[in-house]
Amino acid sequence: MKSWLILGLGLIVAVILAGCVNRARNTSNSRDVRLIQRMTDRDIPETLEVFDASNLEEELRAAVATPADFWGVVQDGQDNPLANVPVRVTLFDQVLDPFEYPFVGWTELKNVRTDKKGRFKVSGRRAGAVVVNVDEAGYWQEEQGYRTYYYATELRSRNEQPLPTAGSPAVFRLIPKPEDAITVPVSTGAIAMSLDGTPIEVAFSTYSRHGAEPGEGTMRIAVEAGEPQEDGRYDWQCRFEVPDGGVQLRRQLFVKEAPAEGYQRRVSMGYEADDPNWDHREDYLLFVRDRDGLYAHFILRVRTRNHPFVSLQGVYNPTGARYGD
Hints:
Helices cover 10% and strands 34% of the residues. It is mainly β. The strands form five sheets. Strands 11, 12, 16, 18, 19 and 20 form a six-stranded antiparallel beta sheet that branches. A four-stranded mixed beta sheet has the order 6-3-10-8, with no helix packed on it.
């Protein structure tokens, strides 16, 4: 298997699903690859420092030209077909021009729904990978999250099961969501930070772009950075604290339920200046339990150069249940 193609398409799919691609860049550095490795447990060579796109374009063009017919069926927990269920299908079917990171583009198909027998089909399309998610109000997939199917020849060994056919479609089972599987979105936007360790506070339900007033927040975030060395690197640390509650780092991209145990009042993350993997930015996946016993899932973004900021994006459950979405 060609390692460049694995990184070029296999990981890019994960990057996009994780919401980590915001704009095109000429290359992705080792930090981007390490972030996806943490979130997906991918086996990536630790010695990879620069992802050189110059060796990738020809392989990606061949990959996205692969015929990608897809057959699926949606059932309930008793294997009964579910009709008229919306299906989200994303085809990684383009190479970007200019050829810049993330290198591949995608097409999201609209109005894909199951028929009376619960079946759906995508035909006559070409793609290196197909991502499928079934999302019906009041239900969730028995297997959480998006499913990725690799059609490119060099990537097919990454499939956990054979590609679907007309006679053997991919099966998606929907089970009813518990009544208390309710989530409220939280998106703070960029909150400007000082680098002297002064904390800001954020509340689940009363967040703002400037954080909460002192004493009113459920979470405290502080960033501290040292003096830059000659090479521009510096020690920096982000402290995330939940008074009378807890936080823990997580690995999963998609989750149904927050863990019941394993929370700490405070976690610290960051880099020392001499770390070979040093970066001035980082993204962290967190579970949070606040003082009122409410659970949340967040992506914490930390940026320490130019205009330092932190941001939180995720959901919390206002019922006190551990269910997310």
